């Protein structure tokens, strides 16, 4: 018997006396994250419908493998798609990074530790584990590497912003056009920037690590702005996730011919 | 408007105890502590409860109300439904002494383990100059009234008695952050100690401490995560680590 | 008793508020072994509730300020009944005590130059209160608490244990100061948690137990304010000086009933809060007494200008000393111009933006929002007088804080008398705690050097133990909760903010009667953390305090500061020369008159003679201060 049932504690048999719907939040988180993971996995292995001039799905950008559809690889195709005789979807090469970024994100950590690991499922609700060491050992000590994923995340933001910009072309590659797809990619890039800029590591790097704000007025200003965004980091984390998924769904449907990409001009 | 309020109050001590039903009058505007006092004055003269200020300033009246760690003096009876039974128990992370009173000495022991403030050696009284922007971060943490609700709710110790020896808890993470961000503090190894001795790495930033803090201190976002980042600077980031070796200083001025 | 828990120390400090902790730090730094005892947990003492700030003439905001100005303000506020030497020491030493806190890690709000910021408060000529938002007391107590820990850590490096030379005993109530051969020998008490008894042997005891507010029905004080130290000192043979003077803070919450009395900090007025009655009239202009006419604005325009230009305008009358404002509100309410709940309106929402209010008065915003459902950035607050502070207290030697008449006994903080005269200025208490807490620590250290520890006799132990056991041996006696409620009713109605001779007489009789009944209190339940049992002891102390107050009040036939007599409404300069000294013979409290020491020449000369004429008799003026 440990935790709230330890011998010295008040003898109460319930693991929580909370009367509100404390299980709702973790249940929703669980549902949404699981759905995303399933969809993303399916898409990562699907290996088609990710490009429809000028739109690239964020799941496949930048497409770096020799198997990529022509036009979807602005950075070239340095990787062979066959390793050890197995065909690898080009998405797998890049999804690692956004995945790592989100997996080590301070906010997502909270969300999945609660919803998946139930450590704890909700505040003042006893968790089911008998042992707990937090983030002090492998593998969880690797969470401390969040900043590296953050830097990679920034590179991806630049690339996805590039994708949104080249979407100001028509199907023949002429500039000066705009479609629903342009908006979708633009929105996706914006949300990703908001997510990254509101990141705790970003806040720390820009100014949080300083001891004297007064000696670094510019960084203090930046820190203050990022602090405002940081307040909303969980919100950005969710809507940017939906943004990515939606951008992919949109491109997939256009590429498969199910939807037509409507051009405003 | 007085009404009859149904309550369940945990009574007992370390050996035995359970929830007891009582019905008590509650008046408009009253907080849970008021009705507990009424129970005490009229029905259970020896009901043990801690309190001092009755204004949310001293952090004495911490207990769990309908399962949530709260200050009884800042919890309005009216925030519960008319038909709802209010259940009050002692804090469940600490050893119970009697009724609603627990032994919170764990926290005072931890307080003694945190290295104290170290001003510059040659600074004379009255000569300190600090800018408001430089003290504000630490001031947020000094709002703490030591109610220990954050400590109570933190699963690291609430659910794992054995972690108590190696984990200082959110209250003391904000104390460490306060000192590390103090513009005049000179002690160098607070970050390393936070990780190696005070158990910062045990925290999995699930934010329950922030949820319950009656002073609305943003414990996780403003103290724990920044401290984790500072720890990465000195322990897990080879580039930064190299930088500090070359420039021979830890934080940045 | 063979299995009695015993400790022996050089100094025992009763009380872990600002005064007690400061005394303990000083005594420990002087090399002594020190015990700190307190009724609640460490860091929860009353001091934690102080909001506005600590007064010290650092001159950071207005450099015209200096100790002389602070001294003058303090004397005026106390209507010249203060012990001049205490007021002098206090004014001179406060800045050092505040700077010392900063050395220990306190983070006060800053000025643009990076110095400690100071704010305006009632009765202070210049912005003088060092503060942290509106939680200054918390900062003070936490800093002291952390200073204690720092000293313990230092001891831990030198000795085997961190607590070997300085230890806190929380949740322990002292019930007796034990004397042997006329000298202090130790204290006796019980652990609240278990009810087990404890003896501390020590040649020096410092009382720092704070105030008496719980004797009254409506008060800003917590349950701890039961006047224990006042009673312990009386019983140990010390005197209480000027117990008739109680400060009713003008602005306590009045609605809802459960929060009645909780303090609304004076900073609300310092930051521009305005008092109005139900007719919308800003009534304070009607209540500026003659002695203050040249310092306070008599029209709204000038009062408003003062907030931006303090050098060329007189201050708004909302910032008059507390006794004046409390009486004014009382009069307005009695005249039917109060709110339905018996208060008046206090409004900051018109002068300050919501953002500024939340920044400068965060806990007030919080308090009203959570407890009363009032958003003070939009609506006015309802306020009325609440019993807040006792000016009277243990008679001490100003320089050493030694209690007059009892070798080895010291007192500092709210429990000590004399410093504030008939009325305390806001902010002067926190600095008082530091100045005289330190002096008590020094005084005790000095005394211990020359004193031998006296062993506590078995007879004394038995007497103390019997007293604790008594309520358990009775059954079917009186209930301490209801006796307490009766006492509060009496003090509230008969010894309250406005007093008359006949009511005071009635009060004295009724208090005596309750005291008789209290000898018959019985307690249900066991010894373990039993609030009913705790209250039985507190009640005893409150009764002694109430008796001292009522008896001093009936004797003083004038109105001054925190003592207002309907039948003697005027300030009487002859009474200014008189202190009341209460003492206790084991049965009843008796009160005698004692002459106030005359102001020495150098302090006398700090004042304009015309001002002194308002307070002193012509003969005193003619003498021109003592040489
Ligand atoms: C709401 C409020 C706001 C205030 N604001 C201000 C302000 O802004 N500025 C200012 O200068 N002043 C202010 N004051 C006044 C000031 O806070 C008090 O006068 C001061 O804190 C008293 O300090 P103290 O050290 O004398 O005693 P306290 O802080 O009251 O401490 C008393 C200690 O004695 C202990 N004790 C008592 N009896 C016993 C016993 N029998 N056995 C063992 N221990 C015992 C208690 O446990 C406690 O630790 C305010 C007061 C209140 C109530
Ligand atoms: S965020 Fe960390 S410290 Fe706070 S409750 Fe969760 S695990 Fe504990
Ligand atoms: S941080 Fe908040 S919850 Fe924790 S002890 Fe301080 S006030 Fe209480
Ligand atoms: S991305 Fe969430 S904290 Fe960095
Ligand atoms: S009694 Fe002080 S916080 Fe509740």
Overview in brief:
The complex is a heterotrimer of chains A (265), B (253) and C (627). Chain A is mostly helical and 265 residues long. Chain A is built from eight helices and four strands.
Write the layout of secondary structure elements.
The complex is a heterotrimer of chains A (265), B (253) and C (627).
Chain A: H1 24-46, E1 51-52, E2 55-56, E3 82-83, E4 86-87, H2 90-104, H3 106-115, H4 146-166, H5 180-197, H6 200-208, H7 217-231, H8 233-255
Antiparallel strand pairs in A: 1-2, 3-4
Helix pairs in contact in A: 1-3, 2-4, 4-5, 5-8, 6-7
Chain B: E1 3-12, E2 17-26, H1 32-42, E3 62-65, E4 68-71, E5 86-89, E6 96-98, E7 101-102, H2 105-113, H3 132-142, H4 149-153, H5 155-158, H6 170-181, H7 190-196, H8 208-212, H9 219-236, H10 238-247
Parallel strand pairs in B: 1-5
Antiparallel strand pairs in B: 1-2, 3-4, 3-5, 6-7
Helix pairs in contact in B: 3-6, 6-9, 7-9, 9-10
Chain C: E1 5-8, E2 11-14, H1 18-29, E3 34-37, E4 54-55, H2 67-77, H3 84-103, E5 118-119, E6 129-130, H4 136-158, E7 166-169, E8 172-180, E9 183-191, E10 197-201, E11 204-207, H5 228-235, E12 240-241, E13 246-253, H6 267-270, E14 274-276, H7 300-306, H8 322-337, E15 344-347, H9 354-360, H10 362-371, E16 381-390, E17 393-394, E18 409-411, H11 428-450, H12 458-473, H13 480-494, H14 501-518, H15 531-555, E19 578-584, E20 589-595, H16 601-604, H17 609-613, H18 618-623
Parallel strand pairs in C: 1-10, 2-3, 2-11, 3-7, 11-18
Antiparallel strand pairs in C: 4-6, 5-6, 8-9, 9-10, 12-17, 12-19, 13-16, 14-15, 15-16, 19-20
Helix pairs in contact in C: 1-4, 1-11, 2-3, 3-11, 5-15, 9-10, 13-14, 13-15, 14-15
Residues 105-107, 146, 150, 199-201, 233 of chain A line the site of one FE2/S2 (inorganic) cluster.
| Biggest beta sheet attributes of chain C | 5 strands, parallel
In round numbers, the mean pLDDT of chain C is 93
Backbone structural class of chain B: alpha+beta
Low-confidence stretches of chain B: none
Q: Determine the number of helices of chain C (DSSP H or I, runs of at least 4 residues).
A: 18
CATH class category name of the largest domain in chain B? Mainly Alpha
């Amino acid at each position: 018997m440990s935790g709230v049932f330890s011998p010295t504690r008040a003898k109460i048999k319930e693991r929580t006396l909370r009367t509100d719907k404390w299980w709702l939040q973790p249940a929703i988180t669980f549902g949404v994250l699981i759905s995303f993971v399933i969809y993303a996995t399916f898409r990562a292995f699907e290996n088609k419908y990710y490009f429809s001039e000028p739109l690239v799905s964020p799941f496949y950008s930048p497409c770096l493998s020799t198997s990529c559809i022509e036009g979807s690889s602005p950075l070239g195709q340095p990787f062979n798609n066959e390793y050890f005789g197995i065909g690898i979807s080009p998405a797998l090469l890049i999804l690692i990074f956004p995945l790592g970024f989100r997996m080590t994100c301070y906010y997502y950590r909270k969300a999945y530790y609660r919803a998946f690991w139930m450590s704890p499922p909700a505040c003042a609700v006893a968790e089911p584990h008998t042992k707990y060491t937090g983030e002090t050992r492998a593998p969880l000590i690797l969470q401390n590497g969040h900043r590296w994923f953050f830097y990679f995340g920034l590179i991806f933001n630049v690339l996805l912003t590039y994708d949104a910009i080249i979407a100001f072309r028509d199907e023949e590659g002429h500039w000066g056009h705009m479609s629903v797809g342009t908006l979708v990619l633009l929105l996706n890039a914006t949300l990703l920037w908001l997510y990254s800029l509101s990141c705790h590591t970003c806040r720390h790097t820009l100014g949080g690590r300083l001891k004297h704000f007064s000696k670094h007025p510019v960084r203090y200003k930046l820190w203050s702005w990022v602090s405002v965004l940081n307040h909303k980091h969980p919100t950005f984390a969710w809507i940017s996730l939906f943004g990515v998924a939606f951008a992919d769904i949109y491109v997939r449907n256009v590429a498969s011919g199910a939807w037509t990409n409507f051009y405003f001009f | 408007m007085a009404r009859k309020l149904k309550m369940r109050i945990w009574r007992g001590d370390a050996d035995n105890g359970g929830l007891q039903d009582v019905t008590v009058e509650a008046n408009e505007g009253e907080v849970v502590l008021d009705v507990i006092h009424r129970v005490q004055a009229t029905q259970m003269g020896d009901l043990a409860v801690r309190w001092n200020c009755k204004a949310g300033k001293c952090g004495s009246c911490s207990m769990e109300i309908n399962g949530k760690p709260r200050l009884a003096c800042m919890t309005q009876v009216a925030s519960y439904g008319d038909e709802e039974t209010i259940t009050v128990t002692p804090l469940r992370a600490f050893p119970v002494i009697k009724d609603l009173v627990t032994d919170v000495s764990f926290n005072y022991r931890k307080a003694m383990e945190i290295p104290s403030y170290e001003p510059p050696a040659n600074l004379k009284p009255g000569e300190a100059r600090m800018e408001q922007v430089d003290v504000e971060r630490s001031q947020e943490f000094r709002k703490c009234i030591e109610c220990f609700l954050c400590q109570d709710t933190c699963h690291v110790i609430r659910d794992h008695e054995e972690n108590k020896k190696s984990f200082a808890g959110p209250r003391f993470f904000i104390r460490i952050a306060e000192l590390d961000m103090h513009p005049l503090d000179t002690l160098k190894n607070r970050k390393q100690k936070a990780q190696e001795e005070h158990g910062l790495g045990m925290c999995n930033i699930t934010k329950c401490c922030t949820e319950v803090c009656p002073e609305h201190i943003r414990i996780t976002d403003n103290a724990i995560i920044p401290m984790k980042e500072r720890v990465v600077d000195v322990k897990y980031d080879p580039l930064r680590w190299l930088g500090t070796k070359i420039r021979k200083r830890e934080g940045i001025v | 008793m063979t299995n009695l828990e015993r400790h022996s120390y050089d100094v025992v400090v009763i009380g872990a508020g600002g005064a007690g902790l400061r005394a303990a730090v000083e005594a420990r730094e002087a090399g002594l072994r020190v015990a700190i005892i307190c009724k609640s947990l460490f860091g929860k003492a009353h001091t934690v509730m102080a909001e506005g700030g600590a007064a010290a003439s650092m001159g950071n905001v207005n450099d015209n300020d200096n100790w002389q100005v602070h001294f003058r303000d303090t004397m005026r506020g106390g209507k010249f009944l203060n012990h001049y030497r205490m007021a002098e020491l206090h004014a001179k030493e406060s800045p050092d005590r505040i700077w010392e806190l900063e050395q220990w890690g306190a983070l006060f709000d800053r000025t643009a130059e990076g110095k400690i910021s100071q704010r305006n408060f009632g009765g202070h000529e210049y912005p003088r209160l060092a503060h942290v938002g509106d939680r200054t007391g918390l900062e003070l107590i936490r800093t002291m608490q952390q200073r204690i820990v720092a000293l313990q850590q230092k001891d831990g490096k030198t000795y085997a244990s961190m607590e070997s030379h300085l230890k806190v005993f929380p949740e322990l109530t002292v019930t007796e100061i034990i004397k042997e051969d006329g000298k202090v020998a130790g204290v006796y008490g019980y652990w609240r948690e278990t009810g087990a008894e404890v003896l501390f042997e020590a040649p020096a005891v410092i009382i720092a137990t704070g105030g008496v507010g719980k004797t009254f029905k409506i008060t800003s004080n917590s349950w701890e304010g039961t006047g224990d130290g006042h009673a312990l000192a009386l019983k140990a043979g010390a005197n209480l000086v000027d117990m008739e003077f109680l400060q009713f803070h003008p602005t306590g919450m009045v609605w809802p009933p459960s929060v009645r009395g909780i303090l609304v900090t004076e900073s609300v007025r310092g930051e521009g809060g305005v008092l109005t009655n139900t007719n919308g009239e800003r009534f304070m202009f009607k209540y500026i007494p003659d002695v203050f006419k040249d310092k306070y604005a008599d029209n709204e325009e000038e009062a408003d200008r003062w907030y931006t230009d303090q050098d060329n305008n007189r201050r708004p009358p909302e910032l008059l000393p507390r006794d004046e404002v409390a009486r004014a509100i009382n009069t307005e309410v009695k005249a039917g111009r109060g709110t339905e709940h018996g208060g008046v309106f206090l409004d900051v929402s018109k002068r300050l933006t919501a953002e500024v209010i939340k920044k400068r008065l965060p806990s007030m915003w919080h308090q009203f929002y959570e407890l009363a459902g009032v958003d003070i950035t939009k609506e006015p607050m309802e306020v009325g007088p609440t019993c807040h502070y006792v000016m009277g207290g243990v008679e001490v030697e100003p320089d050493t804080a030694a209690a007059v008449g009892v070798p080895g006994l010291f007192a500092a903080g709210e429990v000590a008398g004399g410093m504030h005269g008939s009325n305390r200025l806001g902010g002067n208490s926190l600095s008082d705690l530091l100045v005289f807490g330190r002096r008590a620590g020094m005084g005790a250290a000095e005394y211990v050097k020359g004193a031998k520890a006296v062993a506590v006799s078995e007879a004394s132990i038995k007497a103390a133990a019997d007293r604790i056991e008594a309520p358990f041996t009775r059954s079917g006696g009186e209930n301490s909760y209801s006796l307490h409620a009766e006492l509060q009713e009496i003090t509230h109605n008969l010894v309250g903010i406005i007093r008359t001779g006949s009511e005071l007489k009635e009060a004295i009789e009724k208090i005596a009667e309750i005291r008789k009944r209290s000898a018959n209190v019985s307690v249900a339940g066991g010894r373990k953390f039993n609030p009913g049992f705790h209250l039985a002891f507190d009640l005893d102390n409150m009764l002694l305090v109430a008796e001292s107050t009522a008896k001093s009040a009936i004797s003083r036939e004038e109105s001054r500061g925190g003592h207002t007599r309907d039948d003697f409404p005027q300030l009487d300069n002859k009474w200014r020369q008189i202190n009341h000294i209460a003492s206790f013979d084991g049965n009843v409290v008796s009160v005698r008159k004692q002459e106030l020491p005359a102001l020495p020449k150098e302090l006398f000369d700090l004042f304009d003679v015309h001002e002194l004429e308002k307070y002193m008799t012509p003969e005193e003026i003619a003498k021109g201060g003592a040489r």
